[in-house]
Amino acid sequence: MTFQSSLFHYEEDLSVLSDAQREVYEAVEQDGYGMREYARKTGRSAGTVGNLLRRARRRLDGGEST
Q: Domain range holding 23?
């Protein structure tokens, strides 16, 4: 018997991220926004969005716990 995979099996567990990190990660990595574009949309500086994204990536890779 062959089981069909669902998208749920491939989704990353974003629960380790802060709310701000999750928001930026989803927008840039999953929804296709550019960092500067998302910064303008949310009223944040590009540096802030970049830092949030960097920290989110580190956490997801297991390199940063808090």
A: 19-61
pLDDT digits (tens, 9 = 90+) for 7-61: 555 667 899 999 999 999 999 999 999 999 999 999 999 999 999 999 999 999 9
pTM of the model: 0.78
d(CA 41, CA 63): 29
Does residue 33 sit in helix, strand or coil?
A: coil
Q: Return the SS3 of 63.
A: coil
Q: What is the distance between the alpha carbons of residues 17 and 6, in angstroms, rounded to a whole number?
A: 23
Report the domain count for the chain: 1
Say if residues 21 and 56 touch (Cβ distance below 8 Å). Answer: yes
